[in-house]
Each structure stands twice: as C-alpha cells, then as structure tokens.
Design goal:
Layout lengths: L1 E8 L8 E4 L15 H11 L29 E9 L11 E9 L4 E5 L2 E3 L1 H8 L16 H7 L2 H12 L2 H12 L1
Antiparallel strand pairs: 1-2, 1-3, 3-4, 4-5, 5-6
The structure holds adenosine-5'-triphosphate and magnesium ion (MG).
The site of adenosine-5'-triphosphate (ATP) has 14 residues, from helix 1.
C-alpha cells in the first residue's frame, strides 16, 4: 500500500484545486517558508480523521478552510482526497485503489467518503487501523514526536508497538465487545 495522490481544493492555503502526485522517487517537498509544505501533511492527517484543530495548527476546525488572501475571497468548503494504491490489499477492502475524501463546510457540516461513497469517520479509522497509516500512526512522525515517544510512559509507548505489530484492532474490538 502506498500514497499515490493528494487532491485538494479549499484546504488552508490551497484556494485553487491542487493535485500532488507521489510518483516513485518523490521523497521530499521543498519550498520557501510559508509556501504550504506543512499544509500538505496537515491535509493528509486531516483526511485520515484528525479531529484536533490545535494539532492542525488552528483554533477551530473552520480554520482549515481557505480564509482568503489579498487577491482572493475566502471559500466555504475545504475538500481533500487521498488516493492510495492498494494492489497488495494491505487495506482490508476489495479495491486496488482506495480514495478517501473529507469535506467540511463553513456551516459546520462535514462528510467523509470512501471511493466516492458516503461513509462514517469510524469506517475510515477502522480501515486504517493497524495499517501503519492513520492520523497518529507510525508512518507520520511529526515535529517533536521522537522526543515525545522517548519521554512517554511505557504504556503509551507500548501502543506504538501494538499498532506496528497489528494487534491494536483486536484490542479495540475486545474493549468494544466488553462494553456491550
Ligand atoms: P515553513 O517552511 O515555515 O515550515 P511551510 O511551507 O510549512 O513553511 P505552511 O505552514 O504549510 O508553510 O503554510 C503556512 C501558510 O498557510 C501561511 O501563509 C498561512 O497564512 C497559510 N494558511 C493557513 N491556513 C490558512 C487558511 N485557512 N486560509 C488561507 N491561508 C492559510
Ligand atoms: Mg512547515
């Protein structure tokens, strides 16, 4: 499984439709300060279900919507789609390509789509659980994360290993079953 493409319109500084192709060989994104490099990783975490506005460097979820510039009016919706190659079927879904979409409107409404079909956030978190990709999975190491891992409690550190080993979903299912 690997990241193929990121498409967005209206997310943070991306007022125009932007498509980033992660063709083989792409290993870095470079650009001047404030040009939107971190906004790309924010978009990836957001579409995978990030719920914390603070962790997306804003104060409320509406802050992810393009707020306007000197030459452009603000927009009313932010839309991000992540396309993943799933030919190895690492994601437990019967598709060779998986497109995950998240949209949020200024009115506060939001929606998630899986291969263009409306779905719940839970469907997305379940799909990515134990895959290594997810809003907090080990494939995304944000600034300060290494220090955080080293200084965290052993139980917290354990969950990173559990996700890598692929046992987290069984633990969550067990917990859910015990609650019922
Ligand atoms: P650095 O090299 O300093 O880390 P960067 O390339 O990572 O920079 P980002 O943090 O991705 O830059 O982009 C910041 C820019 O995004 C700022 O100019 C900010 O004004 C703009 N921005 C953030 N949110 C919005 C929004 N909702 N609407 C419009 N512009 C936004
Ligand atoms: Mg940055």
């Amino acid at each position: 499984m690997f990241l193929k493409k990121l498409e967005t319109v209206g997310f943070k500084s991306f007022a125009e439709r932007v498509s980033v192709d992660f063709v083989p060989g792409v290993t870095a994104v470079v650009g001047p300060n404030g040009s939107g490099k971190s906004n790309i990783t924010d978009a990836i975490r957001w579409v995978l279900g990030e719920q914390s506005a603070k962790s997306l460097r804003g104060s409320k979820m509406e802050d992810v919507i393009f707020s306007g510039s000197d030459t452009r009016k603000g927009l009313n919706v932010a839309d991000v789609t992540l396309v993943l190659d799933n030919q190895d079927h690492q994601l437990p879904i019967d598709y060779d390509e998986v497109a995950v979409t998240r949209r949020v409107y200024r009115s506060g409404e939001s929606e998630y789509l899986l291969n263009k079909q409306s779905c719940r956030l839970k469907d997305i978190t379940d799909l990515f659980m134990d895959s290594g990709l997810g809003k907090e999975a080990f494939s995304i190491i944000s600034q300060g994360k290494v220090e955080e891992i080293l200084s965290s409690k052993s139980e917290e550190r354990r969950s990173i290993f559990e996700e890598a080993a692929g046992v987290l979903k069984y633990k969550k299912r067990k917990l859910n079953a015990q609650k019922k």
